[in-house]
Amino acid sequence: MIIMGSSVQIKYKHIPAYKYITVEDEYTINCKNIRPIKQETFECDFLKFDVDGNLTIKVGYAWDGCSGPTHDDKTNMRAGLVHDALYQLMRQGVIERSCQKEADIMLRQIMIEDGMLLAENWRESVLAVTRAWTYYRGVRIAGKKHTKANPEYNKVHTAP
Q1: Which of 10, 34, 56, 113 could hold 48 in an S-S bridge, CB 3.0 to 4.6 Å?
Q2: Domain-by-domain residue ranges, the chain?
Q3: Which of 15-20's residues contact partners 24+ apart within 8 Å by CB, and which partners?
């Protein structure tokens, strides 16, 4: 039992600000070629990743959408969610950093599945292909630094 008073400390983690949070339902997707390093199921408050490559994103998971000079819409929201969760698992050491390319390919595939390439005319179609390719190239070029384990990520702070 914790009794509140001036000598009681709280423990917390510093995390960057996010734009979105999942609500209502869990979301599970199979990450075909990605497996946990320890060959055992990993689970935390908002993510679960099993030995068969099933990633479950639980209610309350927060993410910041697609990064860079982009705009969030229904064609990239699910892709950004899965991509952010996979990069988080890399930073936490649950999956290998060498899985970055597979995570980036999944980003592009999910965007296409979610309608990024559906266009009413050839001009929109060209723009959609260019947009999906640009997102993919962006994470291929700049994503590596965001997969690196950060000792601050799991650091527990105490106050006061």
Answers
A1: 56
A2: 11-148
A3: 16/64, 17/64, 18/62, 18/63, 18/64, 19/63, 19/64, 19/65, 19/72, 20/62, 20/63, 20/64, 20/65, 20/77, 20/81
